[in-house]
Every structure is written in structure tokens, then in C-alpha cells.
Amino acid sequence: MTETITLILYLAGDVAEHTAFEKLSKCLKAKRTIERNLYQDTGNVRYSCENKTVEISKGPDGKNYIVKIVE
Length: 71
What we know:
The chain is α+β, with helices and mostly antiparallel strands. The protein is built from 1 helix and 4 strands. The mean pLDDT is 88.
């Protein structure tokens, strides 16, 4: 288990997607870009940069991916 900055997409209060970032500034930059270009009219979509404990696994391409948010 690893603690990481995670950009989380909440749809109607439930976690729909998540992506890990090394720095909070990169997470916030991605969040701003998404909020400016997508999902401007919907009230049930929320993005949040949070410090989460996650399980990470390597994908077939060799990159690390979040398998599960622990907390």
C-alpha cells in the first residue's frame, strides 16, 4: 500500500474514476483543465485532489496503476 495524491471523479457522490499524481500541483492542474473543458453544466460531477492510501499494481505496459483505494 502506498500513500499518493489522487485525482478522484465523483459521480452522484460515488467514486467513478481515480488517477495518481506525484505532486499536488500536477493534480490541481489536471483538475482545472478538466473542469474548464468538460462537465461544465452538470451538478452531480465533482473532481477532487486527495491524499489517499492506495494499492498499486503494474499494468501490461509496465506503468503503475491504482487497483483499489484503501481508505
